Amino acid sequence: MTIGPPERAVARTKVIMQATLALAQESGYAKLSIEAVAARAGVGKHTIYRRWPSKGLLFLDSLLSLNEPALNFPDTGDVLADLRQQAYAAVDLLANPPWGPLYQALVGEAQHDPAVAAGLGERFIRPQTDRTIVRLKAAQDQGQVSPGLDLDLVMAILSGPLYFRLLITQEPMTHDYVDRVFEAIFTGLSPRH
Amino acid sequence: MTIGPPERAVARTKVIMQATLALAQESGYAKLSIEAVAARAGVGKHTIYRRWPSKGLLFLDSLLSLNEPALNFPDTGDVLADLRQQAYAAVDLLANPPWGPLYQALVGEAQHDPAVAAGLGERFIRPQTDRTIVRLKAAQDQGQVSPGLDLDLVMAILSGPLYFRLLITQEPMTHDYVDRVFEAIFTGLSPRH
Amino acid sequence: MTIGPPERAVARTKVIMQATLALAQESGYAKLSIEAVAARAGVGKHTIYRRWPSKGLLFLDSLLSLNEPALNFPDTGDVLADLRQQAYAAVDLLANPPWGPLYQALVGEAQHDPAVAAGLGERFIRPQTDRTIVRLKAAQDQGQVSPGLDLDLVMAILSGPLYFRLLITQEPMTHDYVDRVFEAIFTGLSPRH
Amino acid sequence: MTIGPPERAVARTKVIMQATLALAQESGYAKLSIEAVAARAGVGKHTIYRRWPSKGLLFLDSLLSLNEPALNFPDTGDVLADLRQQAYAAVDLLANPPWGPLYQALVGEAQHDPAVAAGLGERFIRPQTDRTIVRLKAAQDQGQVSPGLDLDLVMAILSGPLYFRLLITQEPMTHDYVDRVFEAIFTGLSPRH
DNA sequence: AGGTAACCGAGACGGTACGTCGCGTCTTGTC
DNA sequence: GACAAGACGCGACGTACCGTCTCGGTTACCT
After folding, report:
1. Per-residue pLDDT tens for C12-21?
2. Chain B partners of A193 at a C-beta cutoff of 8 Å?
């Protein structure tokens, strides 16, 4: 006896998401077309255009509809270990299908379409970052992290090398890579460390 | 009796590059079309297809044809200061038109087109990285950098946060941001530093 | 305690007719759409489809709902003069808005849609013709018209040139044209007449 | 060694005409679509739009590309007999497939689209009329037709009843009908004739 | 100097997809 | 319980580019 959006609409949305993901995985985002999504979903094109203004935002929604395997944000008391766990989880997600290639394409699209960039930022990056920052804040309160440190900056420093690998060098991301990044950053780059 | 590439071909290539850049700056890479480039350049479409196999590679070439303001890679003996200078130069380039938005679009395209990714890697990222590594190697030899350190990894750690800003959060990049990244990385994230 | 059609239904029909006519006059029959009629009339599309099976028949009804200015069919005893009066009246109707262009469009639609052709024949042409034939019959009885003559044929001969002008040459129809047609037909085409 | 339009273009035009006629005969003009013509002709839609601005004009051209079986315009010296022959020929053409239904649809379209009306007038009606008028002029010179008579008007009077039948009552057109029209017009409608 | 081959602009061409419109059918929720 | 509002599958619209393909009209090179 709850009130909400008509079930029909929900069902359409769902089938469209699935068709989008299926086609994106089969042929890649570049060859994805709204026409093909509509055909695959057994849906009129207008039903898609009614919900999404562009291919990019459709794709963003469909990717986010894959309920991410709950990137865990543990708090064991050891902030370094916890961050490493988060990084492992992120790598596990981004280095493997289906997320990996799709996410890469999504970030690519964000460079062409400001609306996608905004959506990606608000709906994926920001929440993800916030949860990391919660952990960092706790560590900061316990004196494990420099008091005045900009925690968004820490996020950028920890994530940056991963994105560099995903997007720029496009080499495989592994736990080992995470380990080496962490070691370099936290053990220090200078010989005296 | 000079030997070299036919001058006309060179001239044509040049006008195509210029047309590509002009259109990309006016309307953005997403709306760029080979059709429009040909029209703007006063050139047959075939003349473009003869030289470039795809829009992405045409765009890559045209961007690289902007002789980058020679990112300088100084060696003053102070490796940290030199790296910072490099970062400043990179930010000056990437944070401002025309390079900034165009480069962002190029990296975006590299996510959709492996050929662009390869070209970008070989012709821009790799050389850039190599020159940085030369400087790091020198520092390493002088004992200013940990002996066993993977210098490609250092590059990733230094560049990563900048790319994160450029591509993910899409916030403005400034010298101040570089300073804060360097301070966090080299002064250390833990309170004891 | 009166018996009759529900008044609300009548009212709704009326507003639909008006909307149809208004749109047809504004944009022409070709651009008329049931969608637009419903919107203009402030009525659900279903309400229209419940009453009319096609755009053509809706338009036919709406045109006939304009109570034609009672084409008069006089009987003054002079059949030629009376027919001429009828022709004048027809021209007055068909040569001027709103009837003129709308009727022309309706006849056009009748060429594409047999249902419209049938409706037009039964509900406009046939009654009109019948009333003319009544007058002709009287004249025939009085010996003013050849006894064996097919009066439907006479109708075709008198109307034909008017329709030719309306539909084929699409030149303006005037009383003068009627006069010239009548003179040629009744005075005769050969010089001996 | 003549100069003219490229053969390829001529060939395309021809195959498009044929596809248009085939589809129009199969499904009727109302259901004809440029999309379907393109598919049937094995041609891109743009190739059609490059040549014709509307479905109506495409159809007009395709109908006229059926080289009409040379409606003959004889001159035997007997103008009445010659006109009757012309009328027979017209009826033979318009009363039978393929011309009949297609021509009817074309005249219908002319009521919705001024461009079609103009084309029809200039490219079919006018030439047809002119040839009839040539015959009438000769008769007039020989004193078989009233000297001052508007010959366009004669054409309207002779054609009108045929078009009335084709378009309004939509009954079959036969030689017999022609005979009855001619008898009524030329023998006279009044009993004294 | 003339002949010929390569190159070029222009753009036609078969396609694919775009984003929009209207069809006729179907919910949904309101009055 | 009738009805406005409009979602829906569908088909077609007219447009934009794709990458390939003629088509003539210069170059520019080689006898």
Report:
1. 899 999 999 9
2. 146
